[in-house]
Design a protein that fits this description.
It comes from Paenibacillus xylanilyticus. One of its GO terms (molecular function) is isomerase activity. This is Sugar phosphate isomerase/epimerase. Residues 23-289 form the Xylose isomerase-like TIM barrel domain. Keywords: Isomerase. This protein has one domain (7-289): TIM Barrel (Alpha-Beta Barrel), CATH 3.20.20. The strands form two sheets. An eight-stranded parallel beta barrel has the order 1-2-3-4-5-6-7-10, surrounded by five helices. Strands 8-9 form a two-stranded antiparallel sheet. It has helices spanning 18-27, 49-61, 81-101, 120-138, 152-160, 173-180, 184-190, 211-215, 225-234, 250-259, 276-288, and strands at residues 7-10, 32-36, 65-70, 105-108, 142-146, 167-171, 195-200, 202-205, 238-241, 266-268. The protein is built from eleven helices and ten strands. It is α/β, with parallel strands linked by helices and 291 residues long. The protein is globular and about 50 Å long.
Length: 291
């Protein structure tokens, strides 16, 4: 097996801001970057057409490209009908920003997809994703749900009910092994028609956990990235670890991505640890072993 996929890095994983993070991504050997675009300097409202053009030019000057933007608005995802009035509109603006910056992929967490399709939360998620999917599809883009909160089987059943593939999948194998206990290899095969972007990270599951305690849900605390970072570093239920040190079988997983014909980015995400640059550099070298 020889991988030909490009290697990406989430700029925010460096924890040093966008511009310095872009330079660090170049320095560690990445070919592309993913950037959070929900607040601060990367909020679509804060980037004028001229600023977007300048940022894209700067990324081009580094020899990088954007693999995707992160459009994760947190909270309960799209499970609350009242919140979706503004969340859907902001998500559309993030899709617009992505296209201006040269990528057609926005990744996010939508909230846990209920196993029961007759539930009110399921209907609320479906309505929001149907609108987002149609918008993305009309623009030649994808709104990509990150794996982990629910099983691959439940996610596929949900995606199959949407009218377009404008809502697709950002496949994260570590989330699956840490939270639901799913096998990423089988998950990749199951979701093969929807995978448009991937995250590369590793982890171990130490004990069973209710996904609602991790990702939030109606009736539970909302999803909080800092809380999740504390959970993956504390090791009570699961732990994120450097590539190759966890439960993701990358030999089989990368082979499965090849088997299903996935040609997109392998984007490194490192959410914990006190030396992210060193960990990300090692992750780049880990992936390059398969080239």
């Amino acid at each position: 097996m020889t991988l030909t996929n490009k290697i990406g890095v989430i700029v925010d994983s460096f924890g040093v801001g966008v511009r310095e993070g872009l330079n660090k991504a170049k320095d560690v050997g990445a070919e592309g970057v993913q950037i959070y675009a929900v607040k601060g300097e990367m909020d679509p409202e804060n980037l004028s057409p001229a600023a977007r053009k300048e940022l894209r030019s700067y990324i081009d000057s580094l020899g990088l490209e954007i693999s995707a933007l992160v459009g994760d608005l947190g909270g309960h995802g799209f499970q609350v009908k009242e919140d979706n009035l503004w969340k859907v509109e902001k998500s559309k603006r993030i899709v617009d920003l992505a296209l201006d910056l040269g990528t057609n992929i926005v990744t996010t967490h939508i909230g846990i997809v209920p196993h029961d399709p007759a539930s009110e939360v399921y209907a609320t998620l479906h309505a929001a994703c149907e609108e987002l999917g149609q918008y993305a599809k009309s623009a030649g883009a994808y709104f990509a749900i990150e794996t982990g909160p629910e099983t691959a089987a439940d996610l596929k059943r949900f995606l199959d009910t949407l009218s377009t593939n404008g809502v697709s999948v950002n496949f994260d194998p570590a989330n699956m092994v840490m939270v639901t206990g799913d096998d990423p290899v089988q998950g990749a095969r199951l979701l093969k028609d929807y995978i448009v972007h991937t995250h590369v990270k590793d982890g171990v599951r130490l004990r069973e956990v209710d996904p609602r305690d991790v990702y939030g849900a109606v009736g539970y605390a909302p999803m909080d990235h800092e809380k999740i970072a504390d959970m993956v570093s504390s090791g009570t239920f699961f732990r994120e670890v450097p590539l190759g040190e966890g439960s993701v079988d990358f030999d089989r997983y990368f082979a499965a991505l090849q088997e299903i014909g996935y040609t997109g980015y392998l984007t490194i995400e490192r959410e914990v640890g006190d030396q992210p640059e060193q960990d990300i550099r090692k992750a780049v070298e880990f992936i390059k072993q398969y080239r």
